[in-house]
Amino acid sequence: MLHWLLLKIQSTEPQADALSDVLMAHGALSVSIEDAHADTLAEQAIFGEPGDPPPGIWQQNVVTAMLEADADIQTLLANVQAELGLDGLKYQLEQIEEQDWVRATQAQFDPIRVTDDLWIVPSWHQAPNADAINIVLDPGLAFGTGSHPTTHLCLSWLAQLPKPLLATANVLDYGCGSGILAIAAKKLGAQSATGVDIDTQAVIASRDNALNNQVDAIFYDSAEYLHEPFEIVVANILSSALMVLAPVIASSCKSGGKVALSGILDSQQEILLAHYATWFEMDAPIQQDGWVLLTGTRRCP
Ligand SMILES: C[S@@+](CC[C@H](N)C(=O)[O-])C[C@H]1O[C@@H](n2cnc3c(N)ncnc32)[C@H](O)[C@@H]1O
């Protein structure tokens, strides 16, 4: 049964916001803007870092309006053209059938293999390897489902740490998001795991996820962080935050302790390597899909 129409209009960066406003004013249920070249070699990557000005939008984009099935498209287009002074709009119309939206959303998330022995499994899936360490995690408001290369890099690093080292290690997950790294550390055998985050929602999500995984890990607001020393510190935060937090991360890591830093783009690794070399003996960077993991060992202060 037909339920909605999707009107997709080709646009350019200066027009896109005004076009969205006019579509909403004339009855669109929702409007989204996407890169016109998404999923092609010409795709334009846009990243925002805390403290930076808003990154803007794509030069060539597609503005998509979701409309009631009986919307009068010709009148809507005439209004858009008249109000914005645009001629010859290029557009496409698609029909959306009713479907089971919960099932459709869940179908996008499959179990993620980190190693043969470590998997991230959505709660509605059967674990592909029941004997593996399976972290049960559903997509939520906090970052960290395991699908992003930066999380994957940190998880792979935790998984390859020697078991005797982990068994005596207290692990700090700075910028815990969903709590995935702290939960993984504890499940892999760490003595203790603590996560802190600047975002209250992340702390709540981490506590819920730890409970769902029957993992005893502590999560709290980074504003209350006590600067305790840990044997292992993982921090998957964007590079600008890692630069600012470097003294905190260094003072949180015991002499001889290990650090793993991610959320770093290829182009940002040199400056971070140089900065963290002040406190750590740094290893060769590890790369995945344009993202970098930096690891090191804390020198004696
Ligand atoms: C990329 S997510 C990483 C989440 C998870 N650790 C993972 O590896 O998937 C970064 C997290 O760091 C948090 N964050 C950003 N800046 C921070 C800061 N200055 N102090 C503490 N947490 C911060 C964000 O709220 C976010 O939850």
Please characterize this protein's 3D structure.
With 301 residues, the protein is of the alpha/beta class. It folds into 2 domains: 2-98, 2-Layer Sandwich (Alpha-Beta Plaits), CATH 3.30.70.120; 146-298, Vaccinia Virus protein VP39 (Rossmann fold). 30% of the residues lie in helices and 31% in strands. Strand 8, helix 6 (180-188) and strand 9 (192-197) form a beta-alpha-beta unit. Bound molecules: S-adenosylmethionine.
In a few lines, what is going on in this structure?
It is found in: Cytoplasm. By secondary structure, the chain is of the alpha/beta class.
Number of strands: 15
Rounded to an integer in angstroms, the radius of gyration calculated over CA atoms is 23 Å
Largest sheet: 8 strands, mixed
**CATH architectural designation of the largest domain:** 3-Layer(aba) Sandwich
Sheet/helix structural class = alpha/beta
Spell out the CATH superfamily of the largest domain: Vaccinia Virus protein VP39
Shape: elongated
The CATH class of the largest domain is identified as Alpha Beta
**Residues in β-strands, percent:** 25-35%
Number of helical stretches of at least 4 residues: 9
Oligomer description: single chain
Which ions and ligands are bound to the chains? S-adenosylmethionine
Q: Can you tell me the residue ranges where pLDDT is under 50 for at least 5 consecutive residues?
A: none
CATH topology of the largest domain: Rossmann fold
What topology emerges from the helices and strands here?
Layout: E1 2-12, H1 13-25, E2 30-35, E3 60-68, H2 73-84, E4 91-97, H3 101-106, E5 112-115, E6 118-121, E7 133-136, H4 149-160, H5 163-167, E8 170-174, H6 180-188, E9 192-197, H7 200-212, E10 218-221, E11 230-236, H8 239-251, E12 253-265, H9 269-276, E13 280-282, E14 286-288, E15 291-298
Parallel strand pairs: 6-7, 8-9, 8-11, 9-10, 11-12
Antiparallel strand pairs: 1-3, 1-4, 2-3, 5-6, 12-15, 13-15, 14-15
Helix pairs in contact: 1-2, 4-6, 8-9
The chain binds S-adenosylmethionine (SAM).
S-adenosylmethionine is lined by residues 50, 142-144, 151, 154, 173, 175-177, 180-181, 197-199, 202, 222, 236-237, 241, 245, 263.
